[in-house]
């Protein structure tokens, strides 16, 4: 077991008192995912984490970070008692960052944070050991947890930083102290907490508040708010730009979807670049250029890094594509599923629908003579006063012309239902649970299906229901036949 924190080191970092000595190999804030040897952090949200300390210790936790001795425990248990658990977790993250030799890279943006983080992980893996959060650990808990988990000997650390309200990014960036930081893009997300896009841009730009001396700021071009990002990036020692605008350091010339990949043509430092991102979507091409800029800031060769992007595939819920076989014998009894159900705002919804519009269904294998492009969409949340208009506007997207059927879930999506032509209107329910019950009736062999919505819309329940249509053993039986 590799020791991440001894009780003595953790006590020194937090100013707490250890009731018993312990050695922890990891950090956990959830007993459901806790591994033996983890230090359990008893945070309080809807439930008080202290109520689960006994359970955590019984499951093999090395110790627990607590503000008091919980019920069912005593000082005979390995507890690290502190004044405030969240503050102590931040102290632990701060100490983890301070002792690490890693080149620290931070990412924020309205769209593409997690995908860019995973792209960067894939690219950097060829150059050393990489530490990055396994999930979207990008909030006031997730960032300190990621830093507290940072191994001392890691070569790189990739920190994702998110926000939902003003004032959240700067303190997290100061905690992470990145050597370089990337803003993927700025789009209409969390508008109910901001007056306009400019406010979102200023909040995203706060990631540069935490840059180390000599730090590098990576920002997108071609946005209405790019000047705001340039102003925020002025505090960096170096600013690197990427995007479609002429003069960008990483200049996107063309992005073309070719089957299950995106072919990217770009220019950097006077040289042409041509590479593939192994998933369809022009937005992935732009994200990839930002990732290459960040990789170069970490000391990697940009051309080599572009080739290494081929090792990346999107995780579940982030645009992952798979074929669902509903029959072990007949491979035609299948449909293609894009699982993009983790989150949504107007920009990411537009990008996802463009991918669906460019996908090729299969004809003559289902109940319909022609294969269909089917969108299954859940509400986009936190859009503020304009949410109804933003949902209805999806009907006017050019990509929507190529989509054959649209099934919808959520009260806000009623606006899109009313705006769609009747020929495209599929099933509609106010909840994703109800739509999930109809999963078998939403798709047909030969279809290409896209599922997308904000996490809170629970449209991932529809993904789960569609996955259950897969016959056991069918994927293996048809392996290599796609």
Automatic annotation (TrEMBL):
What Gene Ontology cellular component terms go with this record?
cytoplasm
Q: Which InterPro entries match?
A: Mur-like_cat_sf, Mur_ligase_C, Mur_ligase_C_dom_sf, Mur_ligase_cen, MurCDEF_CellWall_CoF430Synth, MurE/MurF_N, UDP-N-AcMur_synth
Q: What is its EC number?
A: 6.3.2.10
Pathway(s) of this molecule: Cell wall biogenesis; peptidoglycan biosynthesis
Q: Where in the cell is it found?
A: Cytoplasm
Recorded GO terms, molecular function? ATP binding; UDP-N-acetylmuramoyl-tripeptide-D-alanyl-D-alanine ligase activity; UDP-N-acetylmuramoylalanyl-D-glutamyl-2,6-diaminopimelate-D-alanyl-D-alanine ligase activity
Q: Which SUPFAM superfamilies match?
A: MurD-like peptide ligases, catalytic domain, MurD-like peptide ligases, peptide-binding domain, MurE/MurF N-terminal domain
Q: What residue stretches are annotated with the Mur ligase C-terminal domain?
A: 326-454
* Alphabetical list of Pfam families matching this protein: Mur_ligase_C, Mur_ligase_M
The family database entries (Gene3D superfamilies) matched by this protein are listed as: Mur ligase, C-terminal domain, Mur-like, catalytic domain, MurE/MurF, N-terminal domain
Question: Highest taxon of the source?
Answer: Bacteria
Domain Mur ligase central, residue spans: 107-295
Q: Record-annotated residues binding ATP? A: 109-115
Which Gene Ontology BP terms does the record give?
cell division; cell wall organization; peptidoglycan biosynthetic process; regulation of cell shape
Which reactions does this protein catalyse? D-alanyl-D-alanine + UDP-N-acetyl-alpha-D-muramoyl-L-alanyl-gamma-D-glutamyl-meso-2,6-diaminopimelate + ATP = UDP-N-acetyl-alpha-D-muramoyl-L-alanyl-gamma-D-glutamyl-meso-2,6-diaminopimeloyl-D-alanyl-D-alanine + ADP + phosphate + H(+)
Task: Give the principal location in a single coarse category.
Answer: cytoplasm
Keyword annotations from UniProtKB, A to Z: ATP-binding, Cell cycle, Cell division, Cell shape, Cell wall biogenesis/degradation, Cytoplasm, Ligase, Nucleotide-binding, Peptidoglycan synthesis
Family under the similarity heading: Belongs to the MurCDEF family. MurF subfamily.
**Alphabetized PANTHER family for the sequence:** UDP-N-ACETYLMURAMOYL-TRIPEPTIDE--D-ALANYL-D-ALANINE LIGASE
Entry function = Involved in cell wall formation. Catalyzes the final step in the synthesis of UDP-N-acetylmuramoyl-pentapeptide, the precursor of murein.
* UniProt name for this protein: UDP-N-acetylmuramoyl-tripeptide--D-alanyl-D-alanine ligase
**Chain's gene name:** murF
């Amino acid at each position: 077991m590799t020791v991440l924190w001894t009780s003595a080191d953790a006590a020194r970092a937090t100013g707490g008192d250890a009731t018993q000595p312990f050695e922890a190999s990891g950090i956990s804030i959830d007993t459901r995912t806790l591994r033996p040897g983890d230090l359990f952090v008893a945070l309080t949200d809807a439930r008080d984490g202290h109520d689960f300390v006994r359970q955590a210790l019984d499951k093999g936790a090395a110790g627990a970070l607590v503000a008091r001795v919980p019920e069912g425990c005593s000082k005979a248990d390995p507890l690290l008692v502190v004044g405030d658990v969240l503050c102590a977790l931040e102290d632990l993250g701060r100490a983890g960052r301070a002792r690490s030799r890693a080149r620290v890279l931070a990412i924020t943006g309205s769209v593409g944070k997690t995908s860019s983080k995973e792209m960067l992980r894939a690219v950097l893996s060829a150059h050393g050991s990489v530490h990055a959060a396994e999930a979207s650990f990008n909030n006031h808990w997730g960032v300190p947890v990621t830093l507290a988990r940072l191994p001392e000997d890691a070569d790189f650390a990739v920190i994702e930083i998110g926000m939902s309200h003003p004032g959240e990014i700067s303190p997290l960036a100061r905690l992470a102290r990145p050597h370089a930081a990337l803003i993927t893009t700025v789009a209409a997300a969390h508008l109910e907490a901001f007056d306009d896009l400019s406010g979102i841009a200023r909040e995203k730009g706060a990631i540069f508040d935490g840059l180390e001396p000599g730090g590098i700021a990576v920002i997108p071009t071609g946005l209405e708010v790019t000047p705001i990002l340039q102003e925020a990036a002025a505090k960096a020692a170096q600013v690197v730009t990427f995007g479609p605008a002429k003069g960008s350091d990483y200049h996107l010339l063309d992005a073309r979807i070719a089957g299950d990949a995106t072919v990217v043509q770009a220019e950097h430092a006077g040289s042409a670049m041509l590479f593939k991102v192994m998933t369809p979507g022009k937005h992935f091409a732009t994200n990839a250029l930002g990732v290459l800029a960040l990789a170069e800031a970490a000391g990697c060769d940009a051309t080599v890094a572009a080739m290494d992007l081929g090792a990346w595939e999107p995780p579940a819920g982030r645009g992952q594509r798979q074929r669902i076989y509903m029959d072990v014998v007949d491979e035609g009894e299948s449909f293609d599923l894009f699982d993009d159900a983790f989150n949504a705002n107007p920009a990411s919804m537009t990008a996802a629908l463009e991918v669906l519009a460019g996908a090729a269904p299969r004809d003559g294998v289902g109940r319909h003579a022609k294969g269909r492009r089917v969108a299954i969409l859940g509400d986009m949340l936190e859009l503020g006063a304009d949410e109804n208009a933003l949902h209805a506007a999806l009907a006017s997207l050019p990509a929507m012309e190529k989509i054959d059927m649209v099934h919808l879930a959520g009260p806000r999506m009623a606006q899109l239902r009313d705006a769609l032509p009747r020929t495209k209107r599929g099933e509609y329910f106010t909840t994703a649970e109800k739509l999930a019950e109809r999963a078998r009736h939403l798709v047909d062999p030969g279809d290409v299906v896209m599922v997308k919505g904000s996490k809170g819309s629970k449209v991932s329940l529809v993904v789960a229901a569609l996955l259950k249509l897969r016959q056991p053993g069918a994927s293996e039986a048809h392996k290599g036949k796609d």
